[in-house]
Amino acid sequence: YIKQFKKNYEELTSRLFKLYNETIFEKKLPEDMSITWNKRLLRTAGYCAYKRCHGKHVARIELSTKVCDNAERVRDTLIHELCHAAVWMLNQRTDGHGPYWKYWARKSNLSHPELPIISRCHNYSISTKYTYTCTQCGYQIGRHSKSLDTTKKVCGHCHGRFELMGTPGSKEGTPRTPNKFALFVKENYGSAKKTNSDFKHKEIMQLLSQQFAEKTKLDS
Ligand SMILES: [Zn+2]
Ligand SMILES: [Zn+2]
Q1: 97 CA → ligand 1 middle, Å
Q2: Which terminus of the chain has fewer Cβ atoms in its 10 Å neighbourhood, N or C?
Q3: Where exactly are the structural domains of the chain?
Q4: Cα 124 from chain centroid?
Q5: Could you tell me the distance, in angstroms and rounded to a whole number, from the CA of residue 207 to the centre of ligand 1?
Q6: Which contiguous run of DSSP H or E holds residue 35?
Q7: pLDDT per residue rounded down to tens, the chain (220 residues)
C-alpha cells in the first residue's frame, strides 16, 4: 500500500508540477526541480529549502507523506511551496509570505480558479503543543516541547527570529494559531451558546473551530 501510495503521489506531484510550471510560472522553474517525499516530516505539510549554487538560486521542495495524505493536500501544499520556490528562483529573494509570495499565490488562484485560496499556513499540520512564530514573516512551526533554541534557530523563509507563542494549544488540535483561536473562542462562545442552547460544550467548540477556520481562510 505504502509503495502504491508513493508511486501514485510521485506521479501526481510531477504531473501537477508540469502543469503549474506552465500555467503559473511561465515555465521558468527548472524542469528537474527536486520535489521529494519525506516520511519523517510531521510538523508541516511541506517546506521549501533554498540555496545558492555557483551563484545560481536553487530550491528544493519536500512534502510530508504523513500530512499530505490526500490528493487535495498534495496539490495545495505543492502550490504553496512552489510559490516560495518562485520567489527565490525567479525574484531572487526570500520574503516569507510577503508581497512576492502573495503575487505568485494570487497568480495561481487567477490561473486556477478551481483551487481554494492559497493560504499562508498549511492549515492541516499535525498539531503540536508549542507554536513558535517568526517575528518577521509570521511563519509558524510547532514543537511538542519547548525545545526550540530561539537564539540559534532562524526562520527558513526569511531568517527572522522565532518567538514562542502563548499557551499550549488545545487537544482539539486547532493547528498553528492557538492564541488567536483562544481569543476567538473567548469572544464568540457566549453568542454561540445562546443561538445553539442545546449544544454540548464539545459541539460548540466544534462549531467555533469551524467558524474560525473559515474566518482565517478569508483573512489570509
Ligand atoms: Zn509558506
Ligand atoms: Zn520568517
Answers
A1: 6
A2: N
A3: 2-111, 127-165, 177-220
A4: 8
A5: 27
A6: strand 34-38
A7: 667 777 888 999 999 999 999 999 999 999 999 999 998 887 788 989 988 888 889 999 999 988 888 888 899 999 999 999 999 999 998 888 899 999 999 999 999 999 999 988 765 555 556 778 887 777 777 776 777 888 888 888 778 888 887 644 433 344 444 567 777 787 788 888 887 777 777 788 878 787 877 777 666 5
| Ligand 1 centroid distance, CA of 25 (Å) | 17
Helix axes 201-219, 178-195, angle to 10 degrees: 120
CA 103, 108, 111: angle at the middle one, nearest 5?
A: 120
Q: Which residues are in the CB-under-5-Å shell of ion ligand 2?
A: 96, 134, 136-137, 139, 155, 157-158, 160
Residue 195 carries which side chain, given as an amino acid letter? T
Residue the block writes with cell 514573516:
137
C-alpha cell at 82: 512552489
Residues 6+ apart with CB under 8 A from 91: 100
Residues in the chain: 220
64 membership: H or E segment, kind and range: strand 56-64
Architecture of the 2-111 domain = 2-Layer Sandwich (3.30)
